[in-house]
Amino acid sequence: MTPHDSEHGALVQADRFPDPGVHEHKPRLTDTDPRSAKRNERLIALLFVISALGTIASLWAYFAVRPDGTTEGVRLSTIALGVTMAISLFGIGIAAVQWAKTLMSNREYTEERHSSASSAEVREAVAVQFKEGAEDAGIARRPVLLGSVGLALALFPLTIAVPLVSSVGGDWNVSKFRHTIWGKGVRLAYDPSGRLIRAADLTIGSVAHVIPDVPAEERESHHWITEKAKAVVLLVRLDPRDLKRDHREGASHDGIVAYSKICTHVGCPVALYEQQTHHLLCPCHQSTFDIADGAKVVFGPAKRPLPQLPITVDDEGYLVAEDDFNEPIGPSYWERLK
């Protein structure tokens, strides 16, 4: 290619893609009608005030609507906190969007590229531009708007800070993770129905989500919800010949194995079972465990096998636990022995 061809190509490119420049500024209604601008200013201020009221309501909900130890109480407390915090946050967000679309300057500006090091003259020019932009947006002329946004932004962090501060000095007894309500003789029941499980009813390939059998009246207590979260189990029946030789002796019954559903990575529920490979997958980060080989990790970020629940059958043929899990459930934590 000759220099002439190169120059010709550059000219063709320049002709084909001309610089569009800055589009002509089209004034909005709020730019030309002071009454419209005033209405939007009041609307935005109202949204910020609603956000502030949502923050105050969330603080009231945190202290007044406390869980009373029942499922309904926990649900009511969670809903009250969630709704009031959502009002507080969405009030700020919607107000900010409305402010940007109706009152802030919407003019387009261009600036040619230059070296990153700016001269003193350029820095002074930028400061002047910022000042002019603020004047163009009319911020100084809207004290009600400034006051409402300051109120909303000042109060919103309390929705996070107050619960965090009030939790200092709470229950940090991590030894609770070492044990669950499983124990010798506790029967296995289907989750959530609570129906007991007979070993004879499970065929090879069967998978069941399992919880400890407790009296029906206890299932509505806050204590039961906490304990259930630690004690959830996945029960699988394999062909006994598929179990590896190093499988824990005495922990299974006729090919039926039970493992904690709580992933040892970050605690997600592990419940995706692949019958052909006997692999159990965690949907959060794809940690994969081999059920036929003591739930050892075969893929993913988890570092430890799933804890196993030793099981047997009682005189009536129902599956029962022989003991608690063979090790603490869930992710690793400090003071853990292994």
TrEMBL record:
Q: Which UniProt keywords apply?
A: 2Fe-2S, Cell membrane, Disulfide bond, Electron transport, Iron, Iron-sulfur, Membrane, Metal-binding, Oxidoreductase, Respiratory chain, Transmembrane, Transmembrane helix, Transport
In this chain, the stretch annotated as Disordered covers: 1-35
Origin superkingdom: Bacteria
Instruction: Using the UniProt record, give the first listed, main subcellular location.
Output: membrane
UniProt subcellular location? Cell membrane
PROSITE patterns membership: RIESKE (PS51296)
User: Residue ranges of the Rieske domain?
Assistant: 230-320
Membrane topology classification: Multi-pass membrane protein
> Bias category Basic and acidic residues: which stretches?
16-35
Question: Which cofactors must be present for this protein to function?
Answer: [2Fe-2S] cluster
Transmembrane stretches in the record are: 43-64, 76-97, 144-165
Q: Which Pfam families match?
A: QcrA_N, Rieske
Q: Which InterPro entries match?
A: QcrA_N (IPR045603), Rieske_2Fe-2S (IPR017941), Rieske_2Fe-2S_sf (IPR036922), Rieske_Fe-S_prot (IPR014349), Rieske_Fe-S_prot_C (IPR005805)
The UniProt entry's coiled-coil ranges are none
Q: Does the keyword Transmembrane helix apply?
A: yes
Functionally, this protein is described as follows: Iron-sulfur subunit of the cytochrome bc1 complex, an essential component of the respiratory electron transport chain required for ATP synthesis. The bc1 complex catalyzes the oxidation of menaquinol and the reduction of cytochrome c in the respiratory chain. The bc1 complex operates through a Q-cycle mechanism that couples electron transfer to generation of the proton gradient that drives ATP synthesis.
Q: Which family does it belong to?
A: Belongs to the Rieske iron-sulfur protein family.
Name of the molecule in the record: Cytochrome bc1 complex Rieske iron-sulfur subunit
